[in-house]
Amino acid sequence: MSANKDDGGWKKFLWNSDTGELLGRTGGSWIKVTLFYVVFFFCLGGIFVGTIQAMLLTLDDFRPTWQDRVAPPGLTHSPQSDKGEVNFHPKEMDSFQPLVKAMRKFMSLYDDSNQQDNMKFEDCGAEPADYKDRGDLDSSTGTKRACKFPRELLGPCSGLEDRDFGFSQGKPCLIVKLNRIVNFRPRPPANNDSIPEDAQWKVQPNVIPLHCTHKKEEDADKIGEIKYYGIGGGFPLQYYPYYGKRLHPHYLQPLVALQFTNLTRNTELRVECKVYGQNIDYNEKDRYQGRFDIKFNIQDS
Question: From its phi and psi, is residue 32 left (phi > 0), alpha (psi between -120 and 50) or beta?
Fold first, then answer.
């Protein structure tokens, strides 16, 4: 008897047909509860939207608000490959064609035909020069012109004469760039104290020097000559600062081309490249902050 009574008890709690109560409440009571939660969540959503809008009012459309928290620029390269490895056979086109295709696509941005409009581009010279100041980070002067960067500056790594960027000859090229940071002005090294001895000759005014060398000491005699192409063998200051996509929509980063002319075949070789400057740091947790390393394995058998 008690089981039946209890059974009837919870059934009546769910729905009492005698009183018309659902879960112990009448229909009018449920309307009040529903109305309360609708108003409550509406006010909560309004507070959230208002907070976001208030925060957006503190942000500048052109100047990053928290730029002091931005890490120094990354150093990246084309072609990029899985795990930072470049493995190929010079006589087997299929082994390097995807890498070459990626480089051609990247370099097409620097075609002369894309840099003819003098309203968008200007000639900033083929020698390192000081920063190109184009005004403040606001819209009062409109969009900014960008410095031209002719592909011809990259010599045999430009892809104009050698469409395979040296891969078919076993002398691969890498195209290196510093990642963009709005209003960042890289500063050249003040002295040679922080620069390896074999790279100190590269220090010159108005250039952020780039230097590559063996990652492992046992590979010191296996890397061979590395040739540098570009402006001053590094990143010239006249291409800085960058004003952002809205003010600098046609901006082209300066490039440095590396050609590895005599890598030892049939062995894994790891190369590390770094840029040097007063406001460029490195982070062991970020393999691309101010540096990168890449592993080559050129096969000939």
Answer: alpha
Closest CA to 275 of 241, 237, 246, 245: 237
| Total domains present in the chain | 2
Whole-angstrom distance, CA of residue 238 vs CA of residue 90 = 37
Do both 152 and 24 map to the same domain? no
- Asked whether residue 199 falls in the same domain as residue 225, the answer is yes
Pick from 267, 240, 235, 264: which is nearest to 251 by CA? Answer: 240
Same domain, 43 and 128: no
Per-residue confidence (pLDDT) for residue 8, from 0 to 100: 56
Q: Which domain holds residue 276?
A: 73-298
Asked whether residue 78 falls in the same domain as residue 18, the answer is no
pLDDT tens-digit readout, 27-69: 556 677 777 778 889 999 999 998 888 877 766 666 766 666 6
- Is 111 in contact with 151 (CB distance < 8 Å)? yes
228 within domain boundaries: yes
Whether 19 and 12 have beta carbons less than 8 Å apart is answered as no
Q: Which of 100, 111, 77 is nearest to 292 (CA)?
A: 77
E strands within 98-206? 121-122, 146-147, 173-178
